TrEMBL record:
UniProt record, GO biological process: protein folding; response to endoplasmic reticulum stress
Taxonomic lineage: Eukaryota, Viridiplantae, Streptophyta, Embryophyta, Tracheophyta
A Gene Ontology molecular function term of the record: protein disulfide isomerase activity
Protein name, as recorded: Protein disulfide-isomerase 5-2
Protein's organism: Capsicum baccatum
Keywords: Disulfide bond, Membrane, Redox-active center, Signal, Transmembrane, Transmembrane helix
PANTHER family: PROTEIN DISULFIDE ISOMERASE (PTHR18929), PROTEIN DISULFIDE-ISOMERASE 5-2 (PTHR18929:SF218)
Length: 460
């Protein structure tokens, strides 16, 4: 009969086994990793499980997560890690918001789960950084990229429980709707437009905009929203003080084109938040790199960019200050010695295009130079380039989560195990204590202040 020979060292256990026992060990590990079998939870037990005092943030785990997202029509879930500093700062904001959201006519619950501990849940929902927030609407998850301060978070979340299309029957109803919508989303108002014309798009783009139709309104409202005939579809960006009007044709393709092109403002400042918004847009990006996006010269140029964007809706116009985000700007071969402003056309990924003779903008007659740049791109007078790998990875790495790192570690571990199995078996007692150094550092102490999966706080 085979016997396993186990040698316990004073600082770390080392196992020496034959091939049969190695196979048995791997089978045991697989059984431990397999989902545990739990008896089904009855409806009464589910109710009792979440019978918490109103307005409290629910603490979930693997045993009750699915039951929670099934029970609540709308539930915001914070996937956090206990060691994450940004998660700790978010927690009190969620506590405040939970108390307000619980009292809404259509309440929204807030929950949290330690995704670093309950990795099976984190893996299921592709959690690769902390904190990651998702809102589950009737069990269907949607990424939450909105503000994180309690009062703004509440206003943002109200949108998810609002009707797909609000029906407005008076000037006061329009004012109340716009006030309630706030500034976090663009607002579409169809004046004299049938609800059915935009209902499909209201569902499709609900997580990105407010939609409404107004059946009755005054001449004063027409003047305020700057349209002179009906039907008209007005798009507003309160946060950017921008507005545009669409008079048709009100056919499905043209309506959707207008909505898609109006989801972003005419000229969008680059930030981590807006980079995520750009991922959902298929248009080429005209990027202008400024020295400092807050100075007066930059403000004048941004106004010209907005005018160009209004006339060229087939592009997205964005800008960034070298002073504000040096690492991002360096990805496009920009340094402190580069003559700015500079314009490029970016595909949103790893390629961009310089227009021959038109990439830098002089101080004089900038509007004409922007026009020549766009026309030069359309005419094909371009040089195709790739994003500078080093600097590009600098800002991309901040968005790479622990999921990638976990996969790499797992692959390395498997390779090491395979290599060790190929080696000649060791004899008991052949290693002395010097071969097994011990570490007195505990796991929490060994963590770095900012992990690769920890997400930076965002400006609200």
């Amino acid at each position: 009969m085979y016997r396993s020979i186990i040698h316990f060292h004073s600082t770390a256990p080392i196992f020496f086994m034959n091939n049969n026992n190695i196979l048995l060990l791997f089978l045991s590990i697989l059984l431990l990793l397999a989902p545990a079998s739990f008896p089904p939870i009855t409806a009464a037990e589910t109710e009792q499980q979440f019978a918490v005092e109103g307005g409290k943030v629910l603490e979930l785990d693997e045993s009750n997560f699915d039951a929670a997202i099934s029970k609540f029509d709308y539930i915001l879930v914070d996937f956090y890690a206990p060691w994450c500093g940004h998660c700790k700062r978010l927690a009190p904001q969620l506590d405040k918001a939970a108390r307000i959201l619980a009292d809404l006519k259509q309440p929204i619950s807030i929950a949290k789960i330690d995704a670093d501990k309950y990795k099976r849940v984190g893996s299921k929902y592709d959690i690769d950084g902390y904190p990651t927030i998702k809102i589950f609407m009737h069990g269907v998850p949607t990424d939450y990229y909105g503000p994180r301060k309690a009062d703004l978070l509440v206003r943002f979340l109200k949108k998810f429980v609002a009707p797909d299309v609000a029906i407005l029957n008076s000037d006061s109803a329009i004012s109340e709707f716009v006030e309630e919508a706030g500034t976090s989303f663009p607002i579409f108002i169809g004046f004299g437009l049938n609800e059915s014309a935009i209902s499909h798009f209201a569902v499709k783009y609900k997580k990105r905009a407010w939609f409404s139709v107004s059946k009755d309104f005054s001449d004063k409202t027409m003047e305020f929203y700057d349209f002179d005939k009906v039907p008209a579809l007005v798009a507003r960006h309160p946060n950017y003080d921008e507005q545009s009007t669409f008079y048709g044709p009100f056919e499905e393709k043209f309506i959707e084109d207008y909505i898609k092109q109006s989801l972003l403002p005419l000229a969008l400042p680059i930030s981590e938040e807006t980079l995520r918004l750009l991922k959902d847009d298929e248009r080429k990006i005209i990027l202008t790199i400024l020295e400092d996006e807050t100075d007066e010269r930059a403000n004048r140029l941004v106004k010209l960019l907005k005018a160009a964007a209004s006339a060229n809706r087939d592009f997205v116009f964005v800008f960034v200050g070298f002073k504000q985000w040096e690492g991002f700007a360096e990805s496009f071969e920009v340094s402190k010695k580069t003559k700015l402003p500079k314009m490029v056309v970016w595909d949103g990924d790893e390629e961009y295009f310089s227009v021959v003779g038109s990439d830098s903008i002089e101080d004089e007659d900038q509007g004409s130079q922007i026009t020549r740049f766009i026309q030069g791109y359309k005419d094909g007078n371009i040089v195709q380039k790739r994003i500078s790998a080093g600097s590009f990875m600098g800002f991309v790495n901040s968005m790479i989560g622990v999921g990638t790192v976990t996969i790499i570690v797992f692959v390395v571990a498997v390779v090491m195990i395979i290599q060790s199995l190929k080696e000649e078996p060791l004899t008991v007692g052949t290693r002395d204590e010097g071969d097994y150094p011990s570490s007195s550092t505990s796991q929490p102490e060994a963590r770095q202040p900012l992990r690769s999966g920890e997400k930076q706080d965002k400006e609200d």
